[in-house]
Amino acid sequence: MKLALFLYCSIIFIESVKADLIMVEVYGQPTTTKKVYSSNGKSWNECMAECYYAQSCVAAWKNGSTCYTFDYWLMGPITQTKEINESIVAFKVENKGGECPSGINPPTFGNKNATGSLYIDSDPKIAPVWVHYNIYYTKGSWKLNYKVDRICGEYEYDGFVSHADSTVTCSFVWYNENTGGFTYSEMKETCDEYSYGMAGFKYKEDVAMFEAKKYLVKIKDTRAYVRVDGIRTAACQKTPKTAYCMSEKDPTGRMTPSPFPGLFFYIRTPTMSPKLHISLLFLLLLIPNAQSSGYLEIRLKSPFLLNATVTITEDIYFPTNKRVFNVPLVPDHTRILTNVPVKFHRPGTVLINSGPVDKFGLHFATIRSDRWNTKQMIIAPDEMKLPFTGFRIDVKCDRNWHGPYCDKFCNDNHAKIINRRCTHNATLGCPLMLSGPNCDVPLLQTESTCPCVNHGYCVSEFLNPLDTVDRSICECGVGFEGEHCEEKEYDYADAIQFGMHGGPEKVFTEFFERSSVDNELRYLYH
Ligand SMILES: *[C@@H]1O[C@H](CO)[C@@H](O)[C@H](O)[C@H]1NC(C)=O
Ligand SMILES: *[C@@H]1O[C@H](CO)[C@@H](O)[C@H](O)[C@H]1NC(C)=O
Ligand SMILES: *[C@@H]1O[C@H](CO)[C@@H](O)[C@H](O)[C@H]1NC(C)=O
Ligand SMILES: *[C@@H]1O[C@H](CO)[C@@H](O)[C@H](O)[C@H]1NC(C)=O
Ligand SMILES: *[C@@H]1O[C@H](CO)[C@@H](O)[C@H](O)[C@H]1NC(C)=O
């Protein structure tokens, strides 16, 4: 019997993906679909590409018209099936020889263990991972082992510890946005989901890292209570919240069994917060539930008829809250996708897929934009690639919300009623171009009267709502900050990545070579 082997070969222009990763397709069926990502209406090529570019994804599965993508922590064995079963699995593996190897049962050609490492550094600012795989074939199924080497970066890592045995521990700060902290079971669930071990003093070096004061200053809520916790004593496991079990008298702060006898310490601020459970590497912070409100607006333009999709996820590292929008484009009309809610202070990703342009042999093209800190911003490159001729993302505040993070409230309507306006700082000021106690003095924007640079403009501000004397402050355009808008704001968005998939016909190569265009939506004229 002939066994299927296809290699998914496509032209890839994304530098952050190791060029020699490939998807290898087999007839097969995963034994588990627990907690995998699934989506309908994607072509199989798009499904594989989604996996290809996702750092944690190691396999994709086509079951009918459903695309499933599997992350390394959710992968079970794959049962080999036949063509008639119409079920295809694509493994993401290294393409070691530079060409398709031969032998039965790919990717374990000739049933040898397939081993290798997957590496996608989709964002240089966050910790990339090496995913080492060992896939082996036995009795009609592929079994998979994945081991992860995490390379600590700056993003969200509070620090890392190099151990004597050359392993590295990265420490995260995680918190629940609703309650501020995690309960023990929430924490366990989270750790299990990402196949992390619960934090603890596994190595002597870890202890040194836990410089209590360093963490303590990060906790803004003075009621916060931090403890370094091990496994509770049997008695306190049953009644963890009694006064005794929450007190220093309770020996539950000790590791049982402790690798370091006698080690046991608490950090305490005035009032205890029973909600908090702190352990070494997962420090939980009581972060005031800052309210903010804003949205994403995405503009796209193309000279072609496209069935584009826009996928928006929160977080880059472990994408969550995925939303997919179909955005059909007609030639030379700007399509706007707007009012997509965003979370501020969080990273996020926008992935645009053009769908095919058959005439040029294009299977699909992608635009990927990662931002690792969401604030008011504009993301619009100067140049881009066909089939799109315009692309722009705006992160904007909802009405009545102001400030870079859209977290300052000032009711615009109420301000208007009393002949005031809300400033960027959410304070009240005179209407634009006016100043003075009665807001009847023209506020000139000339070089000699207004110190704001970089197209910032002078506005009036009453520091307190009842003040009768105002002052002039600068309101900066997006991209600038500082008292006089003299500083360029830090750019929290990464360079836009373009990908193109097609070929191998000449017509596609030619299309690709001529695909650079100016971004028509770089600047918006109202
Ligand atoms: C796979 O497809 C078959 C046939 O359409 C269906 O019965 C089955 O439920 C699907 N399995 C999953 C996990 O989606
Ligand atoms: C694949 O199809 C064959 C023939 O129809 C059937 O006997 C077998 O059970 C199917 N395998 C799976 C995993 O569905
Ligand atoms: C293949 O991997 C399995 C599972 O890790 C292991 O038991 C086996 O020894 C490996 N075989 C070879 C030839 O390395
Ligand atoms: C877009 O999708 C519709 C419906 O699925 C299809 O009829 C049409 O041919 C597609 N257009 C392009 C340009 O792919
Ligand atoms: C906004 O308020 C902060 C603190 O109240 C102040 O330091 C800053 O100067 C204000 N911004 C502007 C543009 O006035």
Automatic annotation (TrEMBL):
| Pfam families membership | DSL, PAN_3
List, in alphabetical order, the GO biological process terms annotated in this UniProt record.
cell fate specification; Notch signaling pathway
Listed A to Z, the keywords are: Developmental protein, Disulfide bond, EGF-like domain, Membrane, Repeat, Signal, Transmembrane, Transmembrane helix
The disulfides recorded in the entry are C397-C406, C410-C422, C430-C439
Entry keyword Nucleotide-binding: no
Q: Which compartments does it reside in?
A: Membrane
DSL domain residues are 395-439
Tell me which GO cellular component terms the UniProt record holds: plasma membrane
**Hey, what's the signal peptide range on this chain?**
1-19
Query: How is this protein positioned relative to the membrane?
Result: Single-pass type I membrane protein
Q: Which CDD domains match?
A: EGF_CA
- Any one Gene Ontology molecular-function term assigned to this protein's record: Notch binding
Q: Which domain of life is it from?
A: Eukaryota
| Functional note | Putative Notch ligand involved in the mediation of Notch signaling.
What is this protein called in UniProt? Answer: Delta-like protein
- What species was this sequence derived from? Caenorhabditis nigoni
Q: Name the gene.
A: Cnig_chr_IV.g13190
